[in-house]
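[stage:ingest] chain + small molecule (iron/sulfur cluster)
[stage:ingest] validated
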Amino acid sequence: MKLAREVKVGPFILGGKNPVRVQSMCNTDTRDAEATVKQIKILENAGCEINRVAVPDMDAAKTLGKIKQAIETPLVADIHFDYKLALEAIKQGVDKVRINPGNIGDKAKVKEVVLACKDKGVAIRIGVNAGSIKELRKFPGQPNWTDEKWAEVMVGEALEQADLLEQLNFKDYLVSLKSDNLFRTVAACELLASKTDIPQHIGLTEAGSFLAGTVKSAIAMSRLLSQGIGATIRISLTEDPKMQVRAAYEILKALGLRQYGPNIISCPTCGRTQVDISGTVKALEEQIYSDKELIRLSTGKKIAVMGCAVNGPGEARDADFGIAGGRGEGLWFKKGEIIEKIPQQIWIKRILEEIKK
Ligand code: SF4
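[stage:predict] done
[stage:export] tokens:
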């Protein structure tokens, strides 16, 4: 695989040996600047580094400047069908436009978008989704292709578009090749990486619900990331976008590519448990992963939330600190050493205080 060339998006240099950046997409009405900014701020607090918004019409395009001014992270405009929306988005100051070669129109229109991007230093993502490739229009239903054939056609369409950008001497672009099928997605991304040094935005599309989509995405993304493929990542889930950010980081964290918050070790609970371990872990994670500062301060820390004293402090001996539950209370311990008993009501408060120390 070739090392991807570098592309600048806002403050980030993507590709090369740079960190894989986490991206998400708002599900607010972009025309409602207030709601969209509010959601982007929540995503920024969860650690999202690049935010994309849908631009379905000219009113949405004209709102982008207002949104851009109110947020800290690079803004990506997602454009389908109408190249004029892309031109307006560029005028409004977005950092990147995502266009779909399957529906953006003829070469002259794409050329106009590219020249406007060049003029303003805006990057482009050529986003190829398996469901909207031009080749599919030749078939009444779904063609009976192998994953390799899907990959070939998807990469072909991406490169056709990329050639147009290259002819205009435009290099600041990424490509994404997505499908809801993980094997097709992996085959397509691998094929592109074997042929070119174009940096890739990776992810499945329409991956599904939180659990199913995260599992599918983790399998696909680990195959790509372990080969060095992926400059940015988005885990597309039917779920709060904040959880998409979380899922992306958990994948990167598990692969040792990024750090993100603590390593929380918690027991599965059993007949000995007399406290609410699952509720405690959920509430703790909710607080940490909604606050950039708590994420930063807790990064690299190992925190234990165990159901009982039988296995708690012993099994979690290497945790920096943690709780081992009893009946409505718990043992507060540090590095395997029991410090004191504390009531369940103050567990989270105590853990957060310890993180902030
Ligand atoms: S730590 Fe205790 S409560 Fe949790 S699973 Fe083990 S034995 Fe059960």
